[in-house]
Every structure is written in C-alpha cells, then in structure tokens.
Amino acid sequence: MTNKAFVALVLLATTSLVVGCREKTQEGIARNDAPAVKPGQVDAAELAEYLGVSVWSFEYSGKLARIWVEIDAEGKKILVPDRPEDHPNLKLYPSGDHPEKGKVNLWVKKGEIALKVSGAYAGGYTTGFGADALWWGWPSYCSGTSWLQETVRPRPGEEVTLLQHVVTNSQDSARKVTLLLKAKFAGEER
What we know:
Layout: H1 3-20, H2 26-30, H3 44-51, E1 53-61, E2 64-73, E3 76-80, E4 93-94, E5 101-109, E6 112-119, E7 121-128, E8 141-147, E9 159-169, E10 176-185
Antiparallel strand pairs: 1-5, 2-3, 2-10, 4-7, 5-6, 6-7, 8-9, 9-10
C-alpha cells in the first residue's frame, strides 16, 4: 500500500466518523451497494499462515513425565532437546495445586521448533536450526501430518506418539524428514 493510499484510507475512516455524527438520510440507508469498510478479525489459522508457522495443540490429564520431539532427517536422528530428561526447562514440575491437566503446544517455523507445556505441569523449549536445515532449504516439498484424533489412555511409562509430520522433497522422493511429537506418562502400573 502506498503512502497516498494509506493516507486516503485514514482520511476515509476519519471522514466516516465525522459523517457518522450527522443525521442519516433515507438515501444513505437504502444504498446497500455503496462501498464499505469495517473492522475484521484474524483467526488462528490465518495468523499462523501469515507468520509461516505450524502449531499443533494437545490437552492432557495425568502425570506427564516426559515430552519431546524426535526428528529423522534423511536417516540422521535428532532429539529436541537432545537429552529431554536433563533439560531444565522441560522438567515437568507441578505449578500449583491444580488438577494434573494442561496443554502441550508444538510450534514449527522455518529455522525453529518450540515445545511448550502449560497447565498443572509447565515447561518449554525452543531450538534454532539453520535457515536451510531439515526441509527448509529444499526448493520444493510436500508434507502431510497425522495426529491423535481422539482421547488415548496410555499405560504409565508407555511412549505415545501425539503427532507425525512427514516432509518429502518434491524433486527427490528419497529425501524425507519425519518429525514426531512424543510423550510419556508417570504413575502406578495398572
């Protein structure tokens, strides 16, 4: 938008406010085809697309013992964080006298993967990658994501895959990156 167009839009909005204080005529009320501008809202999906971000969210209940991301980048295994059990920001600790429930959010954008846990247990981790790391440096790619569609009830100590995101190089299908979000719950054996 040019400066002139922006100024014209601001003047139009200001003029509308001033004109809005005057008495409306029958002609003004009857014209539904007149140009109009009104405030709008941006929903979460639009905002994520605008920012170039993919975000997935999961609600949990129970004693979440461990949460991490596994990446298989063309045969090379990467853990985010590299030692989840030792990372101080991902030690899942009680954050008050709340029921053992909350949210896990995974955020992926070019050069960055972030994991955030909120609720009864809290923690988080963000790791940076190079701008051309993983699939971000490929000229073109296809991706597909599968995730939990309904509630699952894992046994204590059982590893659960919450999400699988697979990205394949469009020019060389043998080149593939798989991202997995995994969780493990603590508690008494059933």
